[in-house]
Write a structure and sequence with these properties.
Elements: H1 2-18, H2 23-31, H3 35-54, H4 101-112, H5 117-140, H6 146-160, H7 164-184, H8 189-209, H9 213-226, H10 232-248, H11 252-268, H12 277-291, H13 294-312, H14 317-332, H15 336-353, H16 359-374, H17 378-388, H18 419-423
Helix pairs in contact: 4-5, 5-8, 6-7, 7-8, 8-9, 9-10, 10-11, 11-12, 12-13, 12-14, 13-14, 14-15, 15-16, 16-17
């Protein structure tokens, strides 16, 4: 099926390029047609463009953000330490990066920027996870003019060969060409607007992968402006991208604004069962949580959980992401008894879908271990940490005279503000 879809994309591009020289004569011929013929042809063209443009396009506006929380862990006493011969299992070795021209091209750009090895590996792995989606999206961008078709063709060739920088520039030029053509021909403005928005989304993704968040933000904003009013899903996706970039920059106020705008669009359209609804609600809750609006955060998390359970079922990874974030919300506020079953549910779901040693699974296991330790279940906590690949905890350092320990409020009440710092450990989670 993938090969078939790829062949269709190539055929479509070939037709666009082959007919580029006939564009002007075609326009002259169309100008002499009766109105009813133009209307019928226009309806058929729009239907075809809809198939080419949206067939296979996967939305990412509702991708769920995991909370980048440090490990919440109270240091055990020496009596709680396991025997010295009890060693944690070695975590899984990271899978090798795909050896593709796109990955190699990005690696060269990051190396030229002086990005250190660990950060470079993280960016490349993130890019590798999005590469199939990026390729599919790039194949669905349908040009509205021969000049844009040529630019898009050259952009695809450049990116496929690993020349990420040139491919990005060509996509931006193609989008600008679509803008120009759309302003000249109002009756096809929607077609050109969609093409411009999609080209900018791909270019923005490439810039974000290179670490240029500011330029990527500009492109995503221009993409949102170019989207036709009737294209709800594409507009939601643009807003979701803007929110995710703001989240990555720790600008949670801006992230909240973009996610709230996306939610407003979905609610006004009556899209209660939209597959992106839970993701937008989760991300909006996370933005509110990190911005300090606890009341709004809890409300959005609860709505996200209900939406994802309805859309995806009780045991989907999307549900695990929401309950993990909701558990962290309660845990940071000292409501450990409310957090523990949520972390346990996240671990149970991820164990059904992910291999042992996976980084996402390990994080949920460590979150659950922290909650169990706070509830006095040290043995269970250490067992979970061993399963996550963590070594046994280090012996605690002698306390300085006059230090004060804040007690855990297991009854669900709020903890003193200083407790967050005293419980935060810096032990790394093994790479998955």
């Amino acid at each position: 099926m993938e090969q078939f879809l790829s062949d269709l994309v190539l055929i479509r591009d070939g037709v666009l390029n082959a007919t580029a020289d006939l564009w002007v004569p075609l326009v002259e011929t169309v100008a002499t047609m009766p109105t009813w013929v133009l209307a019928a042809a226009g309806a058929g063209a729009l239907a075809l463009i809809g198939v080419l443009l949206f067939g296979g396009r996967r939305l990412r506006g509702g991708d769920r953000l995991d909370r980048p929380d440090p490990i919440l862990r109270s240091q055990p006493t020496a009596a709680d330490m396991p025997p010295v011969d009890v060693m944690a299992p070695s975590p899984m070795e990271p899978a090798p990066l795909p050896d593709t021209p796109e990955i190699q091209g990005l690696a060269e750009i990051l190396a030229d920027q002086g990005v250190d090895d660990q950060a470079r590996d993280g960016r490349l792995r993130s890019f590798a996870g999005e590469l199939d989606d990026l390729r599919a999206r790039l194949g669905t961008v349908s040009a509205g003019s021969p000049a844009a078709a040529k630019l898009l063709h050259d952009a695809r060739v450049a990116i496929a060969s690993g020349d990420i920088a040139r491919g990005t520039d060509l996509l931006i030029r193609a989008a600008e060409e679509e803008d120009t053509t759309g302003h000249k021909h109002a009756w096809t403005a929607g077609i050109h607007g969609r093409a411009a928005a999609l080209a900018r989304l791909v270019a923005g993704d490439l810039l974000a992968a290179r670490g240029d968040a500011e330029e990527a933000t500009t492109l995503f904003r221009l993409a949102a402006d170019a989207v036709p009013e009737d294209d709800l899903e594409l507009r939601v996706e643009c807003l979701g991208r803007l929110g995710a970039l703001a989240h990555g920059r720790e600008d949670y106020k801006a992230a909240r604004k973009h996610f709230a705008a996306a939610l407003d669009l979905l609610e006004k359209s009556g899209a209660d069962g939209h597959p992106d609804l839970g993701g937008i609600l989760n991300n909006l809750g996370l933005a509110c949580d990190l911005a300090g609006d606890a009341k709004a955060a809890e409300l959005y998390y609860q709505r996200a959980l209900a939406a994802d359970e309805t859309t995806w079922g009780d045991n989907h990874l999307n549900v695990a992401a929401v309950v993990n974030n909701l558990g962290l919300y309660y845990r940071r506020r000292g409501k450990t008894q409310a957090a523990e079953p949520l972390f346990r549910r996240a671990v149970a779901i991820k164990e059904k879908h992910l291999m042992p040693g996976d980084a996402s699974l390990a994080l949920s296991q460590v979150n659950l271990a922290a909650a169990l330790r706070a509830l006095g279940r040290e043995e269970d906590a250490q067992d979970l940490e061993r399963r996550a690949g963590l070594p046994p905890p280090e012996p605690p350092e002698a306390e300085e005279p006059g230090e004060e320990d804040f007690p855990e409020t297991g009854d669900g009440g709020d903890e003193p503000e200083a407790l967050e710092d005293t419980e935060t450990g810096e032990r790394p989670v093994p790479a998955g």
